[in-house]
Design a protein that fits this description.
The structure is a homotetramer of 345-residue chains. With 345 residues, the first copy, chain A, is an alpha/beta fold. Helix content of chain A is 31%, strand content 19%. Chain A is globular. The first copy, chain A, starts with a strand and ends in a 16-residue tail after the last helix. The relative contact order of chain A is 0.14. The model of chain A has no long low-confidence stretch (mean pLDDT 98). At the C-D interface, strand 7, strand 8, strand 9, strand 10 and strand 12 of C face strand 7, strand 8, strand 9, strand 10 and strand 12 of D.
């Protein structure tokens, strides 16, 4: 059994990691840390765990935790992860960081959108943890930067088109809609039930920090620098991101041909499901699963391709993908412990 | 008191008309028709009306109803309205049709997207009932085609830009998200609670019938033919449409300047509220009201303007706008009976 | 125009008071206070007010506010109201307190369930603001203690039965379910969207502070001391309380007879609607209105009467009832400004 | 691998059976029947199954299906199950019926609450499939009547108290609240999103068909006939039932003692979780799992015990319990394939 720890396990992604790891056949969770809940059983904070685990949150140092686990998930806010990661790496542990701290290869870009980076040298050694693009590098990595939730949906929805140079790179618009769990469990007015319920809004229009992350990976795929318009919205539901993506086609191509392109591109990817052309995913078909579902069509009248991708932001957009990365890093089958079928209705 | 009738009053728009008209200081509702609920008090079908009205649904002919009212709202499915409207017009009644039957000036376009039109001659005499664009014509009209819910939000969000030729007309994308009440009250699997709850999806991508209606009005504003990409989505909430609209700017203009353009354009429009640049409306700020709230920003990196408009689809997107039209047609103040403040939370 | 102020106007009940008062034909809101939002326009905190009012929150003393208004609503947490109320009373203002501070006639009971009372002498002069029971006293009062949301639904559902001695007083069970707005707008984990959405729970079982308030009024009605079992639950919706009330009947009486008893009891009460026997209200039929809807049946097999009452907790359960009290205190018609029809769907 | 069929697999319980069986390590689903969807892949009706199964709905006779499976789940409406079951039993198949047709031991009671029974003789041979009460009989049965969703929550919440004669049997009140999936997938106005959303109501007060089923089992536990007041309510959420149960205590006993009684009673039951006294379950802690969570307290002021039980109505209240029964009937470990952790948030 692989011993794993979750460093910063009090939020929704930490909880989700634990939920999945408890049913993972090859892992044993040996430590959960939290400053706020130190000394409190996780089953008191999250009663879904009653009777399933006796784990208690500890306010433990990285050094202490390193002694208990071979793999460490960092489910910390950005800015904190980069302070904690080096201690684990020094001890020879495999680290999967769910924050943004090691995702942007260009430290200047990180510092522009986030804050001063304290360990810029380590950034170089990290691998962007999107298995569909970087499977082999991830398998060889000791530090994986787990992708943001919005970039996961957007990049998977665009990769085959960019790789094949089928679209006008200046025409990309990502109109994405996320459930509330993406905002975390820290109490704030904006995520209170009454503020979100029966409402819907765009937020951080043209300013969301996931923009440079998307652009970094889309640029790699295209082979040159790309800018996108990205508008996140807040849905009155708990889990899921649906991204509606628009781009102008370079040539006359049918939806059926594009669908084939997607099928070929993702043929070895167990968690990407391509829909029949003209049919589109619903968040409720992926909720609770590690799938990214993708459907597309061609609007002949405007020569645009419209792609819709759907993920569960806490699973494929965070904790499930982190476990997928762990599996690859540890030589396990990529989908070990991730065979959940979506919960519907 | 103005005597008004609702022909086809069993659905949500009929119910909403009644709800608003009961509190309108200048109207008396004299007839509600419904084949299905004939003989049943409206307060049994919609218990919110208990104690407020004794009206009973009748299965009455247009002729019978014409004898009871000066103004008739048709809250019927498309295809039925055009069969019923002539009888009222012949009797000299003012008619406000909430269906699509008289919205498209080009009968060929109607027949392509809907069905054979039975009274094409009458189409010419109808006025498109968007008061912000056609106030004077509405005041003089006897037949008003009340706009579709999606077109209302999209047109109001684009009109000032098109009129001033500020955007590239080929670049328009309308990504719209609607609450479930837009689908009506007819039982079907797709609008069951369990199918919609905690889900989100795009539907009729590139094929929604509101597309030609938007394009008709946007083309009038631009002075030449326009095509848009329009993607409707289904939100897990009951009321409201939020439209996120993208267009490429023709020149270097700031969000503040564009906001001013909107303010000037709508300065005499009591139901359009323009937000400070960089701030955006939430559906929950218009729910229950007749307002269309609009916010915008300029994404300098991609030279796009991003406009967000929000309406309550049953009010500004249907029944409220119909009453606004009635007010104009009958010489009443435009906002009589429409001073509702949004219900929040 | 009656000048009114809202002292402590940043929460949901303060917002709701403003929303209703802006459309009240006889009032002008002259001051809104808030320490947190001092200097900020209310339309920035609650965008539904954009374009409707220029009011700005002020951090003003009671003395300052007293100079601006004849009637003052206190929408403050319990414990604060009792410190603020005397200043307004001294200045001869009419005060309607939405907190619990003046509801319990027995100061000892207040101190047992809440905290030390700082102005016990003033408690005696306050009137419990349930117009259906105390209309005349309210009209003569200068200090009205606006009832709690749960007690409003429970007392109105039981009053006719207790007054007529139809039920076994030891058998009363109130199983109540409330929307989340009852918990206020203060950020806390328990009222985050993700914690409430798709969930349902009982809370403070047998310990909720509204218990002694219910018991006080039910005891007055019965003519002797009564104890009830009261279990509040949290519904995944924003507004509304539905109370399912059980009691054992003293004698053989039909649902039709009991319904008549209710109709007679509330015949002069414009905001209580009694349903036909065997039919029951839904929260969605009162949401947005000041109504309390009541339905009942008799379970012959167990000799119990089952009563269901529904209110909008922010309106009849708080701000609407407060305005109803203001109307009575100021000699206005009881339902002035309160003719809202429920918003459905 | 155990070959299993789902007869009548188009509704939510059929879908849920398939969802769970696809991940059950010892079963292979060999047939799904549906008249309406005959010839259509299940993955088209329920897209969550895209890529997971090629099963196609068939309109097959019991005889045809019997040839394909050793165990058959009947997920049919009551009245249909009893017509279909005999064919499977004759062929020596094990049958688990999710309808009400074989739950009531007294055929007269069945016929009073439902309809004429066509195979009354078979009723005697059926076992009521609540493993916590009838584990051994289920293991030996060929026909199991899977319990109703409401009775599951109510019986598990009362069994230890009745068995130990701790409560007054005439005082039992079950106030239960269910998610909408319990109403099935047949389109009807009452379960449309807009009718349920932001609403809450009681329904079939004193008349719900699950009443005699509860009373049958509670009477067995008590050793004499029991009547209960049972009020079902409809929650605006998809999955889950929370039952708040009231009963008067016979003697002076503490919540801690009662909690112990529950712990002992259920000590060999892997799917019943007893909470610490004074703490109560939330539907969201069991959603997606096969658990029944129970918490209780004693209200000393009224001498009542208040028990709250929570289940996922589609799992422990239907399909999960059916698989639990299958496991027992087939000699598998009771919790095989049922180790799901609740999905939260």
């Amino acid at each position: 059994m692989l011993k794993v720890a979750i460093y910063g396990a009090s939020g929704y992604t930490g909880q989700e990691l634990l939920r999945l790891l408890l049913r993972h056949p090859e892992t044993e969770v040996t430590a959960l840390t939290s400053r706020r809940y130190s000394g409190i059983p996780v089953a008191e904070v999250y009663p879904l765990f009653v009777g399933l685990t006796d784990l208690v949150y500890a306010d433990a140092s990285p050094k202490d935790v390193a002694g208990l686990a071979e793999v460490v998930f960092l489910a910390l806010p950005h800015g904190i992860s980069m302070k904690v990661a080096p201690a684990f790496l020094t001890e020879g542990k495999k680290v999967i960081d769910l924050s943004a701290d090691f995702r942007l290869r260009d430290v200047g870009t990180y510092e522009k959108w986030y804050e001063k980076h304290v360990v810029p040298d380590i950034v170089k050694s990290s691998v962007y943890g999107l298995p569909e693009l970087y499977r082999d590098s991830i398998a060889a990595a000791t530090l994986v930067a787990n992708p943001g939730c919005y970039p996961t949906g957007a990049i998977l929805g665009l990769a085959p088109l960019l790789k094949a140079h089928l679209i006008d790179d200046t025409s990309i618009i990502v109109d994405a809609k996320s459930g509330v769990s993406g905002a975390g469990r820290e109490p704030q007015v904006g995520t209170l039930f009454c503020e979100v319920d029966e409402g819907f809004k765009a937020y951080k229009v043209g300013q969301h920090r996931h923009t440079p992350e998307m652009e970094q990976e889309l640029s790699v795929l295209a082979g040159h620098e790309i800018r996108v318009s990205f508008t996140p919205h807040l849905l009155p539901l708990s889990r899921g991101i649906l991204s509606t993506i628009y781009a102008t086609l370079q040539s006359d191509v049918t939806a059926a041909e594009l669908t084939d392109t997607f099928r070929v591109f993702y043929k070895n990817c167990p968690f990407v499901r391509i829909y029949r052309e003209g049919t589109f995913p619903n968040i409720s078909s992926v909720r609770g699963s590690n799938y990214c579902d993708i459907g597309l069509t061609v609007d002949r009248r405007t020569k645009r391709v419209i792609i819709v991708s759907a993920i569960d932001n806490l699973i494929k957009g965070a904790s499930g993908q982190a476990i997928q990365n762990m599996n690859l890093m540890c030589g396990l089958d990529e989908n070990t412990g991730l065979d959940m079928v979506a919960l519907f209705p």
